[in-house]
Amino acid sequence: MAQLKITLRRSAAHRIPSQRQIVKELGLGRISSSVIKPDDAATRGAILKIAHLVSVEVVEG
């Protein structure tokens, strides 16, 4: 099953509270921090809402 590597590229400070909450729930803290998440509908939906803040890579595993 494919996984996604999500990296925070822009700060979540001064964003609307729901976007800051999504960043926190994904486990991203500082700029350039990365997490590996499963490629499922919930993760894709969260990424869609903060797409302007993150970069996403597909990791085969």
UniProtKB/TrEMBL annotation:
GO terms for cellular component: ribosome. Transmembrane segments: none annotated. Residues 4-54 form the Large ribosomal subunit protein uL30-like ferredoxin-like fold domain. Keywords: Ribonucleoprotein, Ribosomal protein. InterPro entries: Ribo_uL30_ferredoxin-like_sf, Ribosomal_uL30_bac-type, Ribosomal_uL30_ferredoxin-like. NCBIfam families: rpmD_bact. Belongs to the universal ribosomal protein uL30 family. Part of the 50S ribosomal subunit. This is Large ribosomal subunit protein uL30. The gene is rpmD.
